[in-house]
Structures are given as C-alpha cells and as structure tokens.
Amino acid sequence: MSSVSPSSLAFPLSHHHLAKSQPVNSLSLSTPVSSSSSSSPSSSSSSSSSSHSVSLLPVTISLFIKKNGTSPSLSSFNKFLFSVLNSEDPFSAELLFSSISNFNLSPNSQTFCMMIRFFCTTNRLDEAKNLLKAMVVSGLVPTVNSFTILISELCKRGRIKHAIDVFKVMKRTGTEPTILIYNCLISGLCLVGRVEEACALLMKLKEKPEFVDVYTFTGVIDGLCKVGRSDEAMEIFQEAARMGIRPTVVTYNALFNGYCREGRPLEGVVILRKMAETGRKPDFVSYSTLLHGLLKWNQITVAISIYNEMVEIGFDVDERTMNTYVRKVCKYSLSDESVLVEAKKMFKKIKDMGYVPSPYTYSTVIHALSVGGEVDAALENMYEMIGHGYHLRTLTYNTVIRGLCNNGRVDDALSVMNLMIRSRIILDGSSYIPLITELNRQGRILDAGRLYASSLKQGMVGRWVPRVETLAEDDEVNGDLVVQEMQCASSGFSFGSILTTQMTTVSASINRSMCLEKIHALSRAPKASWLIGFLL
Question: Phi-psi category of 137—alpha, beta or left, where left has phi over 0 and alpha has psi -120 to 50?
C-alpha cells in the first residue's frame, strides 16, 4: 500500500487557516508560542475561528511534541487529532491534519475518516467527497460509517447525484451497504421528486428482506404522499403490514399529510381511528396535521371534534393554529349558529394565554357575533381591536352597523358611523343602507332623509334608494315639511327628504319632479361637515 500525505492529495483546504499560518516545522515547538508571535497584525482582523486556529495550534502542538518526542506514533497523532476535533477550536484540526508529514507520518484510514466526518458536520461536503476519493485512490478503504455519514448529508441537502456517486465508489471498494444507507438514498430520491426511482429501489430491496425496515417503507410512503399519490402510498403501507413490518407514528403522519394535501382529510381521520386499534398513539403532529387539513377543507364539525380530543389528551395548540381555528369556525357559524360558542371559547383562550389575536381573526369574530345577534360582544371586540392599534376595515365597521340595525339599535349604529368619520374611514353604500332602512322602519323619516342626502353628496347615488311607504300617513311629517328641510339643506344647515321608487302616496303640495330636482341639487352642493354634528 502506497504512503499518502495530505500535501500529495488533490484536496482543497478551503479554510484560510493555511494561508494565514506558518508551517508547523517552522514554529518554535519546544515552548508555547503566544498569539502575537504566531500571527501578524493583518491576520488579527480575520474571522474568530481563523485567529483561534493560528494562535492555539502551535501551543497544543508544542505540548504534544514535549510529551511524545519529535516523532510521535500515528496512533498518538490520531488520538491527538481526535481531541482537537472535540475541542472548542475544532478548526485547528484542519491545520494539524495538513501538517502530518512534518511528523514523518502518513494518514491511515482512521485519520481520513475523522476528517471526512469533520467536513460533513461543518457542511463542507465537496471537500469530504474529494478526501474520500483521494483516500480510495491511495489504496485505503473508508469505513462504512464514513460512507454512511457522507451519503446521508448529501441526501439531506438534495444532492442525490453526488450521493449516488459516493454509493458507486462504495460498491467498488467492496463495502457492503447497510439498511441505513439504502434508507438515506430512498429519502434523498423522494426529496428531489424522483419517486419512481425510490419505488424501484424499494421493489429491488424487498427481494432481500434484511435490507428493508419500517424506515425504508416510510421514506417511500412519504415521497408518494408529497406528490399527491396517497392511494399508492396506502398500498405500500398495506404491503409493509403484510410483511410483518409495524408502521411508526411517522409513517401514519406521512399518510395524514398526504390525504390532507389532496383535500381528503376525512380519510385521514378514518386512519387515525384505525391507528388507535393497532396500539399506536397519535402524537401532536398527527392531530395538528389533521386539524389543519380539516380546517383548510372546511370540515368544521370534524375539526371541532379533533380539537377537543387534542385538549383532552393535553396537547397545546399553537397561536397560529388557534387563530386559524377561530376564523374557520366563525365563518362556518354563519350557516350554523350552534358552532359559534366553540369559536368564542377558543377566542377567549387566545386572550387568556396572553396572545393578541390577529386583525383578521378579530374582524372574523366581530362579523360572526354581529350576524349571530351578539352585538354587544361585537362592539366590545371592535373597541378592543381599536385599542390594540389595529386599523379596522370599512367592512368590519359595516358589519357592526348592520348587526346593530338588525337589533333596532340605530342610534348605536349612528355612533359607529360617527367613529368611522372621525377615523377617516371611507363610507360606502353598505354603511348607509342598513341605517336608512332601520330609520325608515322606526318612522324617523327626516333622519333617514338627512342620511340619504349625505350619501348623495358622497357620490353614492345608486340604483338602491330608501323605501318610505307611509310618509303621508305620519301626522308629524308632511310634504311641506320635507320640502322645507330640503331648502334648508341647500343653505348648509340640515338635510331632509325621502325619495323612493316605491313611493305611491305623497302630500298634494309636493310635486314628484320637484323632489327629484331638489334632491339632485343637494347632491351637487359643496360637501359640509354637518354629519358629524348630526351623529353626535
């Protein structure tokens, strides 16, 4: 076997230790060397790891030489290299390894393997791969552990082509691959989407049952689920069971993830129930995956059941999941009011845990409470949301206004509109319509007219107009008064008049065409700040 030294290898030591330091044989090895004598001022500005290597290595080598003499044995050198690799300054080992020839030594398989592991753990995989190839060229055979760690790290980073190259080198050296190496290759193939090749490798390995275990099957199942092939993954799952291989929780979680990705979370729930029958206990990931899938695909009632199971078991749901849960349940409550209580419980829990719900969650809760008739709670949360500094959308304000008006609380609704104006929120038709409708219903015709005229001045004259069917029946409101209010409005005092396509009975003193003319004249008048005063 030919001798080999690091200096003879086609191996780039990319760290700048070598460029910044002196050769080991030029250092004063008999006594410790201070950092000032081992590095120039310019080198002190380099990275901390470089400066540590330059300053500490001569000291440690000096002590090593004192203890072992000028020509330590290779065994002693390897022990010393191992201790440096496990020290607070492992990068010094790179310089030590490159200077091994100064001790009249050549690295053996153990020396190389330690450095390969070092390069793998520091994510310098190209250097590890080159070192392994140089090792093989020199006639040394890497250990199976060296092949395993390099193939594993390459697969984790999606560099499957390089991992296969190393695997081929391994086969050429006569080293028998282990189950772990095959599992790494299968996971790596699935990671980069080469699922067919992973399946083919599994089929080949099944011919020798000693080369497959639950992790082999789990890798393929996970890969199939991630590309939307959950039914094929289930076939692999069942085949593993027939071979007597018992699936782990990770195997089940891969199936849950696959079914939820494909919009089939209910099938995942069925598997969850069967999982309990086999004696496997679902973990937090199992429940969390299914809960997210059920919420995403609007299976709300089942999601509520899964969440309650999580609580009973003792699993804590994270803040993001809680916000999603509240929003989804609130939206579902618009068609099924019975589930609103679940949303309220979770919303309270979020706040009790010290979290501040997101603006989207607040808005969704306010909307659900308003539609559900719980307008006091909606108002409370609206003001709470403002207190947190959130900027409410027009839609949120309009939802509260509509809820208040539906419950006959038109004055409270007017106060919310006033808040919108003070907050410089742009009003739209949905801000006015419920107010005008409720004012009409309560017989407050002049107030409704003022509000309608305001909407005209805001440029929101649309196809919808307020409906007043009993104007002439009101003893306190007659056509003459309406015209008088409209004339005052043109002078900037107040607005009045109701215009409707359904109006059939009007006082004889009012001409319909005159009403049209007056109200359109008002809409062209300069904007005034009368509405704030009116709403106060």
Answer: alpha
Rounded to whole angstroms, the Cα distance separating 371 from 340 reads 11
Q: Take residue 474 and report the two structure tokens written for it.
A: 């009101």
Three-state DSSP string of 368-410: HHHHCCCHHHHHHHHHHHHHCCCCCCHHHHHHHHHHHHHCCCH
- Rounded Cα–Cα distance for residues 64 and 55 (Å): 15
- Tokens of residue 175, six digits: 């080293």
Q: At what angle do helices 179-191 and 195-205 cross, to 10 degrees?
A: 160
Q: Is 177 helix (H, G, I), strand (E, B) or coil?
A: coil
Residues 489/453, Cβ–Cβ less than 8 Å: yes
Check if the beta carbon of residue 254 is closer than 8 Å to that of residue 222.
yes
Give CA separation, 240 vs 45, 228, 267, 335, 358, in Å. 58, 20, 20, 44, 44
Residues 6+ apart with CB under 8 A from 223: 186, 187, 189, 190, 191, 195, 198
8 Å CB contact between 155 and 188: yes
User: Where do the structural domains in the chain lie, given as residue ranges?
Assistant: 318-392, 398-536
Q: Which long-range contacts (CB under 8 A, 24 or more apart) does 137-140 make?
A: 138/1, 138/2, 138/4, 138/9, 139/1, 139/2, 139/4, 140/1, 140/4, 140/108, 140/109, 140/112
Q: Tokens 């050296």 belong to which residue?
A: 173
* Contacts (Cβ under 8 Å, ≥6 apart) of 473: 505
What is the rounded CA–CA span in Å between residue 239 and residue 233? 10
DSSP symbol at 264: -
Q: Are 290 and 256 in contact (CB under 8 A)?
A: yes
Q: Decide: pTM greater than 0.85.
A: no
- Exposed, middle or buried by CB within 10 Å (0-12, 13-18, 19+), for 458? middle
**Residue 239 corresponds to which amino acid?**
E
Placement of tokens 């250990």 in the chain: 143
pLDDT string in tens for the chain (536-residue length): 444 444 444 333 333 333 333 333 333 332 333 333 333 333 333 343 444 434 455 555 555 554 555 567 899 889 988 988 988 888 888 888 888 888 888 899 999 999 999 999 999 999 999 999 999 998 999 999 999 999 999 999 999 999 999 999 999 999 999 999 999 999 999 999 999 999 999 999 998 888 899 999 999 999 999 999 999 999 999 999 999 999 999 999 999 999 999 999 999 999 999 998 888 999 999 999 999 999 999 999 999 999 999 999 999 888 999 999 999 999 999 888 889 999 999 999 999 999 999 999 999 999 999 999 999 999 999 999 999 999 999 999 999 999 999 999 999 999 999 999 999 998 988 899 899 889 888 988 888 888 888 888 877 754 445 444 544 444 444 444 444 444 444 334 333 333 332 233 333 333 444 444 544 444 444 333 334 344 43
What is the token pair recorded at 472? 């002439």
